[in-house]
Design goal:
Blueprint (H helix, E strand, L loop, with lengths): L4 H16 L1 H8 L52 H15 L3 H14 L4 H9 L5 H13 L6 H14 L6 H18 L4 H13 L7 H14 L6 H8 L8 H10 L4 H13 L3 H22 L9 H15 L2 H13 L14 H15 L3 H7 L11 H17 L3 H24 L10 H36 L3 H8 L7 H10 L3 H14 L4 H13 L3 H12 L10 H4 L2 H6 L39 E4 L4 E3 L8 E6 L5 H10 L3 H6 L3 E6 L3 H11 L8 E3 L4 H5 L3 E2 L4 E2 L1 E6 L5 E7 L6 H13 L8
Helix pairs in contact: 3-4, 3-5, 4-5, 5-6, 5-7, 6-7, 7-8, 8-9, 9-10, 9-11, 10-11, 11-12, 11-13, 12-13, 13-14, 14-15, 15-16, 15-17, 16-17, 18-19, 19-20, 19-21, 20-21, 21-22, 22-23, 23-24, 24-25, 25-26
Length: about 775
């Protein structure tokens, strides 16, 4: 394995210490040790693992670059290398923007340039404060280099050390220790803006009923008086977000421009505008965030959900697109979220990532805006396909049944009810079979507790199913024009759109109460176009033309981005004409005068994430035959980056994938393994497999140029990593795993490849 001067800067001091130690010298000479020569612990480190311990295994292992636009930071540190200072400042700016992955990358890059810089490790610890084990590991490295730091830096190191020594059960002690430590820094260094920023952030993060928001805000004002564009605008938005959002309007205007390369800094003002029901301004902010995130990820080959707050921004953007009537964009973005690569660590249907958020928001927008045919069509694609998740599958059947009833296909709707009723019978049978008899591993009391827990879970599932069936029978009654029965069945069930329910109430003939219900919804959903549009329509149909015009006038104030071809709005066209409005009754919106300078959205990046092109490559196999990425043009393939015949984990990975090669081929996927071995050693990997030989072609990349091109490489320690990729027939990277350990689940890779590649036949992917 290749090792860099960065490694040696850590290793040589260790070796010198050992050689200077008499005990170590005596042991090295003692024949009882049965060693012909001293052992080297470095040789025992697994391929792909860091030389410096487990804490360095995870996180980014590719070098950073100075990207600019990460905020104005004033935090001088002890280093003789000006680039170390620049990367440290960049990391701190990224930390202020909650861009933790890139913050750690910048701090680790600073450490690679100056391994003795204590504050580089402090920064990496700060970027991992929500991961206690890693934070402790990094702060230990900073403490070990405390002698290279000045007094002020030492106080920062000690402050964080005091924080991480307490676990989550000692939250009050931990928070109190950090508060006091930061205050001590300010007592000695009253002009330290970053101490003020970190204290303000900590006061928000650790807030309790006794926290003074006014005091925290005053601390932030001190910063802005010196540096008006400081990234702490982000912290003021968080401070006032759920209390008095108007207090952060100035920061909402400045947050994005203060650190324009960080997507989350564009997103956070959307919180303030959303709280104030300024949805068009919120949409602009969240769209800016999505575009910046997409541009960064596509440029730097980072998978979307590796950025922890990425999915949160996009799902909130979809909600606000619904509020302003940008329905087509809401559908497209929800579909794009579902399209995104999934990974067991950070994006699955069971986790709150793009997959779950995208599916939830897609159902929401299709239901809200009556896009029933689209819902039915998408249920037959990878977007809203059946799932093994029981609650999600029940939701799918409910929405699909609703869509069929709304389009008049009552038989298809009843088929969804039948499926739900069958599930209900199965659940009831399971509940009846629950026993309290103990197994060999449990006693009588434990058996009773387990049985009771099982019964409660089954009871909860049974109740949800019964409610779902009741709701669908309500929709069935409505489809059969029995509005009163439908209303009675729906009004007491959960997850029924309140606007839709009021419309059904109107259809029962109870016009006045239905209008009151709609007006109440409009009042509680201020400035949202959907309830306003339905109220205007219902008032018109009720003969209340004057009231209708008043509501229509209100709707037009927020109509600039409405998609007029959507059924809810299309039904207003004739009403608009009779009221004297134009066919296109929308009003152009002038930009608010308190939102700051906004760049053109297109200049920030694309609205949707798209896969990036894989690097081209040409390599030889053991026979000297040339293989290249061009061989796979038009055919998707799985690429496995393999750390040579000496890597046992790699051998296990190939032995896991090789028996499944036929399944991959039947799915239209090729496969190749790219090895660090030279052509001679490559043969050993093939011979090690079995008598028949390894069915996966192996090619040599002993120069490591292809490893580096795919970023399957630790730039900090000059060593290759493990990597697995799905690359489509157009040479685009659809999925990747780069890690200190190989990806060992061929079933997941095969299923994910099928899902991703099936999107190529879906309209959205073209």
């Amino acid at each position: 394995m290749l090792r860099s001067s960065f490694n040696r800067s850590f290793v040589w001091p260790l070796l010198l210490i050992l050689l200077a130690c008499p005990l170590a010298a005596e042991q090295a000479k003692d024949p009882a040790n049965n060693q012909d020569e001293p052992s080297n612990e470095i040789d025992n480190i697994l391929e792909g693992h860091s030389l410096h311990g487990d804490v360095f295994n995870e996180g980014p292992r590719q070098k950073a670059y100075l990207m600019g636009g990460t905020g104005r930071v004033r935090f001088p540190i002890s280093t003789e290398d000006p680039d170390v200072q620049k990367f440290f400042d960049q990391g701190l700016g990224q930390l202020y923007g909650f861009w933790y992955l890139e913050a750690e990358r910048s701090f680790r890059h600073a450490a690679s340039l100056d391994p003795d810089c204590a504050m580089a490790y402090w920064g990496a610890a700060m970027a991992n404060r929500r991961n206690a084990d890693r934070a402790k590991g990094f702060i230990e490295e900073a403490i070990a280099r405390r002698g290279n730091a000045d007094e002020r830096e030492g106080m920062y190191i000690e402050a964080l050390a005091a924080y991480v020594k307490f676990d989550s059960k000692e939250k009050d002690k931990r928070n109190d220790a950090f508060t006091k430590s930061l205050e001590n820094i300010l007592l000695d260094y009253p002009n330290d803006l970053e101490a003020k920023a970190l204290l303000a952030l900590h006061l928000w993060e650790s807030k309790s009923s006794s926290t003074s928001y006014i005091a925290a805000n005053a601390l932030l004002e001190d910063i802005f008086e010196v540096e008006p564009m400081h990234s702490a605008h982000h912290f003021r938005i968080h401070l006032w977000d759920k209390r008095h959002p108007e207090m952060a309007l100035d920061s909402a205007a400045l947050c994005g421009p203060s650190a324009p390369s960080i997507a989350h800094m564009w997103h956070m003002p959307g919180h303030i505008y959303s709280r104030l029901n300024r949805y068009q301004d919120a949409v602009w902010q969240q769209e800016a965030s999505a575009r910046v995130d997409h541009a960064n990820m596509m440029r730097d080959q980072v998978m979307p959900d590796e950025i922890h707050n990425f999915a949160h921004n996009n799902e909130w953007l979809i909600r606000n697109l619904i509020h302003v009537g940008r329905v087509h964009d809401a559908v497209d973005l929800a579909k794009n979220m579902i399209e995104l690569p999934r990974h067991p660590r950070y994006n699955t249907s069971a986790k709150k990532g793009s997959t779950s958020y995208g599916r939830s928001r897609l159902f929401q927008v299709l239901r809200t805006y009556e896009l029933w045919d689209d819902l039915i069509d998408l249920a037959n694609t990878s977007y809203l396909e059946p799932t093994d998740d029981e609650s999600e599958q029940i939701k799918r059947l409910r929405y699909l049944g609703l869509a069929h009833f709304q389009t008049g296909n009552t038989e298809a709707g009843k088929a969804q009810i039948a499926q739900l009723e069958l599930r209900l019978e199965t659940l009831k049978a399971e509940a009846d079979s629950v026993t309290e008899s103990p197994s060999e591993d449990t006693d009588q009391e434990d058996a009773k507790k387990l049985a009771e827990k099982a019964r409660k879970e089954l009871k909860s599932k049974t109740k949800k199913l019964e409610i779902t069936i009741k709701a669908l029978k309500g929709h069935e009654a409505i489809a059969n024009q029995d509005f009163q029965k439908g209303y009675e069945l729906l009004k007491d069930t959960s997850d029924v759109d309140s606007v839709y329910l009021a419309r059904v109430q109107w259809q029962t003939g109870d016009h006045d109460q239905a209008i009151k219900a709609l007006q109440k919804i409009v009042d509680s959903s201020k400035n949202e176009v959907y309830p306003l549009a339905v109220l205007a329509e219902i008032l018109w149909l009720s003969g209340k033309k004057s009231e209708c015009k008043s509501v229509f006038d209100e709707l037009r104030q927020f109509s600039a981005q409405i998609d007029l071809d959507i059924p809810v709005f299309a039904r207003l066209t004739s009403i608009a004409e009779e009221l004297g409005f134009k066919v296109d009754w929308r009003i152009r919106r002038l930009a608010a005068d308190d939102v700051g300078d906004r760049p053109p959205l297109d200049s920030l990046g694309p609205l949707h994430w798209h896969p990036s092109a894989a690097p081209n490559w040409e390599l030889n196999d053991v026979e000297g035959n040339r293989h290249s990425s061009a061989d796979f043009m038009g055919k998707p393939y799985v690429g496995i980056f393999y750390l040579g015949s000496g890597c046992l984990h790699c051998a296990e990975q190939l032995q896991a994938f090789a028996p499944r090669i036929t399944e991959f081929e039947e799915a239209g996927l090729g496969m190749i393994a790219i090895s660090t071995d030279d052509s001679k050693t490559l043969k050993q990997s093939i011979d090690n497999y079995d008598e028949v030989g390894l069915p996966i072609p192996l090619v040599s990349d002993d120069s490591l140029n292809v490893f580096k091109a795919f970023r399957v490489y630790d730039d900090f320690e000059d060593q290759p990593l493990h990597g697995t990729f799905i690359i489509d027939g157009n040479g685009k990277v659809r999925w990747q795993d780069i890690s200190y350990e190989p990806f060992m689940d061929p079933s997941f890779v095969l299923a994910e490849a099928k899902r991703l590649l099936s999107q190529d036949s879906d309209p959205r992917s073209k």
